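TASK: fixed-backbone design
INPUT:
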């Protein structure tokens, strides 16, 4: 079973580090229905970003008014020890418990890079509790994309977690 350090940090930061105001199911559905249609617009032409710098894809997200809230890094293979995958999450820490408690899907984009993510990312993630900011956008800017997978975009209450 895959144990991922960065995803653990992400989840812990959501539940323990942040003081969260109460969010409702309707708030989550509104969030989901706001971000996922924008992500699904990109899905059919995601291959145009393959071989391109991350900055090109990130600019596309921003042009669609899609904001990254959290992120984690993952292995390309299981088991693995080198990070090649960047997972971008769009829900803030206040939305995560609502989705979890209702078995709703969490939309995210999983980007596999052609080259290994530099090891310093581990320290950077810990310092920022997995919260996305412009420093991370710049850190990944020139990394070449190998593939992109959109996950959790099949409907907030769908049981189909197959990525696109």
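OUTPUT:
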């Amino acid at each position: 079973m895959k144990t991922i350090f960065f995803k653990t940090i992400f989840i812990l930061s959501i539940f323990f580090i942040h003081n969260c105001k109460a969010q409702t199911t309707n708030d989550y559905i509104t969030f989901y229905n706001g971000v996922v249609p924008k992500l699904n617009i990109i899905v059919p032409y995601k291959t145009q970003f393959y071989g391109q710098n991350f900055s090109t894809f990130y600019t596309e997200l921003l042009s669609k008014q899609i904001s990254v809230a959290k992120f984690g890094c993952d292995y390309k293979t299981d088991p693995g020890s080198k990070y090649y995958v960047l997972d971008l999450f769009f829900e803030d820490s206040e939305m995560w418990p609502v989705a979890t408690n209702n078995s709703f899907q969490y939309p995210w984009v999983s980007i596999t890079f052609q080259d290994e993510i530099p090891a310093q990312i581990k320290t950077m993630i810990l310092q920022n509790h997995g919260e996305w900011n412009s420093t991370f956008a710049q850190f990944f800017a020139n990394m070449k994309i190998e593939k992109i997978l959109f996950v959790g975009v099949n409907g907030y209450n769908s049981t189909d977690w197959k990525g696109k």
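COMMENT: Residues 14-21 have pLDDT under 50 and may be disordered.
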